[in-house]
Structure formats: structure tokens, C-alpha cells
Hints:
By secondary structure, the protein is an alpha+beta fold. The protein has 2 domains: 21-209, Fructose-1,6-Bisphosphatase, subunit A, domain 1 (Fructose-1,6-Bisphosphatase, Chain A, domain 1); 220-353, 3-Layer(aba) Sandwich (D-Maltodextrin-Binding Protein, domain 2). Helices cover 36% and strands 22% of the residues. The chain has 8 helices and 15 strands. It has an 8-stranded mixed beta sheet with strand order 4-3-5-6-7-8-9-10, sandwiched between helices. β9 and β10 (204-209) form a beta hairpin. α2 (21-29) packs antiparallel against α3 (34-58) and α3 (34-58) packs antiparallel against α4 (82-96). The termini are far apart. It binds 2,5-anhydro-1,6-di-O-phosphono-D-glucitol and manganese (II) ion (2 copies). One manganese (II) ion binds next to β5.
Amino acid sequence: MAxxxxxxxxxxxxxxxxxxxxxxxxxxxxxxxxxxxxxxALMNRIGLAAKLIARRLSRAGLMEGVLGxxxxxxxxxxxxxxxxxxxxxxxxxxxxxxxxxxxxxSEEMDKPYYIxxxxxIGRYSLLYDPIDGSSNVxxxxxxxxxxxxxxxxxxxxxxxxxxxLQNGRKQLAAxxxxxxxxxxxxxxxxTGVHAFSLDPSLGEFILSQExxxxxxxxxxxxxxxxxxxxxxxxxxNYIRYVHRHxxxxxxxxxxxxxxxxxxxxxxxxFLYPGTVKKPEGKLRLLYxxxxxxxxxxxxxxxxxxxxxxxxxxxxEKIHTRTPLIIGSKDDVALVESFIKEAAWESSETAHAxx
Length: 354
Ligand code: AHG
Ligand code: MN
Ligand code: MN
């Protein structure tokens, strides 16, 4: 009997070991059409960028010129790290040879980067945050990359990339890479959320979790409470509620990708609300909030500004920021209920005064 069962187990192991990223995309689309092949090739290229970045991060403390600041400031007024620039350029060079992508827009570049030789054939745009959580780089803690793929619409003759100023439902694919104890790539092309782990001995991303579903509520609340003094009363009231009820636990790592990865697996909510200094919050719609919202909805969760679904927000410019409340649907709804209540109270007060 044992002799009969053994080959079945081996077959399953072999099959699991062989589901690579590019193969998985084709399986999900159940097609070898040109579009399916393009998406598969795009994901494969993102995987290559991730491997190059992971390789540099894994030896960062041993190499010259990897850690620390460049001395420059990006378009959002943030000090730029050497790894931000390296990772930004990795994505450009990987897609330069792809023939797939005509434009790349990143939080580290004022304007989109055009690859003219690809433009006649490459109808996709890549939007990305090359290193997310870069304050963690110099202390060897987890960081990430976030990406989103959109189809280019129109000719973009003036180089203004106006077609990128559309809502997040226009995304064809989105995902992130988590550079942690192992490197993981999590993606969605609108058919669920799937996680791959980089097997360093193979140099390949191998499927490790298919169809991730976020619990409908969870114990985690993830927010920088150092900003309490800068928040609206609505957010302060929500945090007071959490402090006074059993069942919550705080986790905040300073890198959105890691904090949200935990929520995908354990449930709960991540918040980056508006502050006095940054009324729209810190996170950028096109490179951070919208791709993560796409994934979260695909996993059965929600992402909101507090008053609107993130995927419905139309940016005014490519670097637009939005407040972000993302995670389990019941937890996001609870935060929204505090925001609604505060809005109702302030309209009642205004009404009483008039
Ligand atoms: P980035 O490194 O791309 O600028 O993003 C950092 C973001 C995000 O990863 C994190 O959640 C948040 O900034 C942390 O900000 P605070 O230090 O203000 O909490
Ligand atoms: Mn970021
Ligand atoms: Mn970044």
C-alpha cells in the first residue's frame, strides 16, 4: 500500500516546487493569448528586479556606497537614500530591454520616464515605489517595493501622461515585494491574491500561498501613534476606542509593505490618516495606496480614504497623496464610522450656530 501512495506525494511536491511566477500568470488567465503572454512577461521582469534588489540588500552592510542618504531630496520633499536610487534604476533597466513598457512612473522621479524604443509596441505603464520603508534600510529591517501595471490609453504626445490620472480600477495588475527573512512577491491580476517566495537555491519565485483571503476582522491596528496630536478628533476617537477595548494589538514597522503583509495574513487595519503637517497623509495614491487597495479588495478586504473607496479616487497629479485606511472590511468600516460620526457632529454644531 505504502509503495502505491508514495509516488502521489512526490508528484504533489514536485508540482508545488515548479509553479513559477510566469507560469502562474498564464494558469490564472487560462490563455496563451498575446495579452496573457505580456502579463506573464511583465511579472517575470518584476521578479527579476526584485531579485536584483534583494541581492543588494542582503549584502548591504558589507559593500561601499549602498547605505545612507544621497544628499538629494525627491519631488515629495523627502531625503533620498542610495537604495531608493539603486532600486529605481533597477526597474528602469529591467524594463528597458523588455519591449513591453513605454513609461515608468515612480515616487523617486519628478516626471514619468519614457523608453522611446519600446513605445511603438509597449503599451503598458509601470508605476512603482522602488523602496518602500526606506528608513528601515540602514538598520537592516524589512522594506518592500510596490508596483502597479496599467494599459496606456491614447498617444501621450505631450509627455504629460494624463491618462495615468484615472482611478485605481484601471489597474491591470498590482503587487508588492517584501524583503524580509525571505523575499516574497505578492501579486494580483484580478484573479485573487497569490504569494511567491524566492528560493535562493533556484533563483526563482515559487508559489507559496494561493488565493489569500484577509479575515473579515482582526486584532491588529497599525498606525504611527506619534502623530496623535496631529489627527482629527475622528481618528483620535477611534484610537481611544481601541485602547479601551479588549482584543486589539498594535504593530507598526515603519514600512507599509511589511505592516500590510501582516494584515493580509492575520487581519486588522493599517491607517495613515491626514495630519496637521500633511493633511492628505503621507502615502501616494498611484504608487502605494491604489496598488495595495487593488490587492486588498481582491483578498476580500477594503481600502478607504475614510470617506471614499481608494480605488475610486482620481488623482490630480501623478504624485497625489491620500489618507489610507486599509485591511479587514469590518475594521475599515469601524474607522469610517468614527469619521462619519465626527462629520455629523460638526455639521450639527454648525447648524446650531446658524
Ligand atoms: P517610503 O519609504 O516609500 O517613503 O514610504 C514610507 C512610508 C510607509 O512605508 C510607511 O508606512 C510610512 O511611510 C512611515 O511613515 P512614518 O515614519 O511617518 O510613520
Ligand atoms: Mn513607500
Ligand atoms: Mn519609497
